């Protein structure tokens, strides 16, 4: 049950619609000053993104989907202090559109690929040209 303070002080989620009348986004705060959970949708009503904001910056777990409804990516975002930038951090996973198979998986540090990364082709086989160890988003050696 909501407390009286929230009934008085909490704003309802902000929503917007595409021209076709389908939801475009929903969340708290104005665009550029987003707070809390935000969800966006494609013009056809398919979910596009879902994640949290703090002070207008993406924070915590974020998920994205392709237009066909298949998952595209998931991972964590962290804001860079003193900037208006939020970077990928920690383990991220990406999927191929169509097959839904994993496309890549590895860690980001300060928005750059670091350490071992695995890449797969759309048929599920390992992409040996891209799989390997990364430093500052550059492939330093392959595991193949």
How do the strands and helices of this protein lay out in sequence?
Blueprint: H1 4-9, E1 14-17, E2 23-28, E3 35-41, E4 47-54, E5 57-65, E6 71-79, E7 86-95, E8 102-109, E9 112-119, E10 132-135, E11 138-142
Antiparallel strand pairs: 1-2, 2-3, 3-4, 4-5, 5-6, 6-7, 7-8, 8-9, 9-10, 10-11
Description of the molecule:
This protein is mostly beta strands. The protein has one helix and eleven strands. The protein has a single domain, classed as Histone H3 K4-specific methyltransferase SET7/9 N-terminal domain, CATH 2.20.110. It has an eleven-stranded antiparallel β-sheet with strand order 1-2-3-4-5-6-7-8-9-10-11, with no helix packed on it. A hairpin with a 6-residue loop joins strand 6 and strand 7. The longest helix has 6 residues. The protein is flat and about 45 Å long. The N terminus is likely disordered.
* Approximate helicity band: under 10%
Question: What does the overall shape look like?
Answer: flat
How do the strands line up in the largest sheet?
1-2-3-4-5-6-7-8-9-10-11
Mean pLDDT: 87
Key terms for this structure?
disordered N terminus, flat, single chain, 1 helix, mainly beta, Histone H3 K4-specific methyltransferase SET7/9 N-terminal domain, 144 residues
Question: In a few lines, what is going on in this structure?
Answer:
This protein has 144 residues and is mainly beta.
């Amino acid at each position: 049950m909501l407390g009286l303070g929230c009934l008085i002080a909490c704003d309802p989620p902000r929503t917007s619609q595409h021209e076709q009348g389908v939801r475009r986004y929903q969340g708290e705060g104005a665009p550029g000053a987003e707070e809390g959970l935000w969800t966006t949708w494609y013009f056809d009503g398919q979910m596009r993104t879902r994640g949290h904001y703090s002070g207008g910056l993406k924070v915590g777990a974020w998920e994205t989907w392709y237009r066909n409804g298949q998952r595209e990516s998931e991972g964590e975002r962290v804001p860079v202090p003193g900037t208006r930038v939020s970077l990928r951090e920690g383990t991220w996973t990406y999927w191929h559109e169509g097959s839904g198979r994993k496309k890549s998986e590895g860690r980001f540090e300060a928005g750059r690929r670091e350490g071992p990364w695995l890449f797969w082709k759309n048929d599920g086989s390992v992409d040996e040209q891209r799989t390997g160890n990364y430093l500052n988003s550059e492939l330093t050696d392959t595991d193949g």
